[in-house]
Amino acid sequence: MRIDVVTLFPEMIEHAASFGVTGRARERKLWTLGVWNPRDFARDNHKTVDDRPYGGGPGMVMLAGPLTEAIEAARAAQRAAGVTTTQTIHLTPAGTPLTHDRVVELARATDAGYVLVAGRYEGIDERVAIREIDEEIAVGDFVVSGGELPALMVIDAIARLLPGALNDADSAAQESFVGGLLDCPHYTRPEVFEGMAVPSVLLSGNHAAIARWRKMQALGRTSERRPALLERRALSALDRELLAQYREGERQ
User: Which helix (H) or strand (E) holds 225?
Assistant: First the structure.
């Protein structure tokens, strides 16, 4: 898989994508990275990439010309690398909220390529969005200074799902949102920390009981913290039983 990022801060992307699971997956050549700076495509001496918005108002808007040329250069690089299908994604608060299911779809297309457009200032010229963007994604209902951090979040979410990225393949299958639930709580040594003990079931060696407890915790946490997720899930008889036990206080 190849991912190209169009950004005014290419060093930010390059540096952050070199660490952790994302960096390891890159070292293993599970995905490759390209970065493209619209400033390199500006025609004037000042390398201008933004201007005041028509109609007035605060802030600046990214110019259509340099941004479009950077996107085209990223697509050309993907074609040269043998990528046959490229999708251009704009990271914006106005986009569709990113979900685990969508990340799975993006990661599953291992032969595909993605061009992630990281806007700045008040945003990008709408004509670029209309002409060049295939999909708009939001990582949350909040605003950050630019699309670089959201782009890195998308890259990390995809990279960790690529086959061979995680040392333990089961890790991805047991994380939050897999199956539509939040993850259960986790514990490690020591057994007692500042008076707080590990739940006894986790020390029992009874794998069936442990699996049941973890499922109960996942259902209970989701009910408390993200009830909308449960509303979209068809609960089995066992799910309802475990959820009732959780709510009755049988958490240990």
Answer: helix 207-225
CA–CA gap between residue 163 and residue 107 (Å, rounded): 9
pLDDT tens for 45-95 read: 999 999 999 999 999 999 999 999 999 999 999 999 999 999 999 999 999
Indicate the residue type of 166: L
| Residue 8 φ/ψ, nearest 5 degrees | -80, -5
The three-class DSSP label of residue 117 is: strand
Contacts of 114 (CB under 8 A, 6+ apart): 1, 2, 3, 4, 86, 87, 88, 89, 106, 158
User: What is the C-alpha separation between 76 and 118, in angstroms, rounded?
Assistant: 18
My answer on whether omega of the bond before 190 falls inside 30° of 0, hence cis, is yes
CA end-to-end span of the chain, whole Å?
44
Q: What does the pLDDT read at residue 24?
A: 96
User: Which burial class, exposed, middle or buried, applies to 84 when counting CB atoms under 10 A from its CB (0-12, 13-18, 19+)?
Assistant: exposed
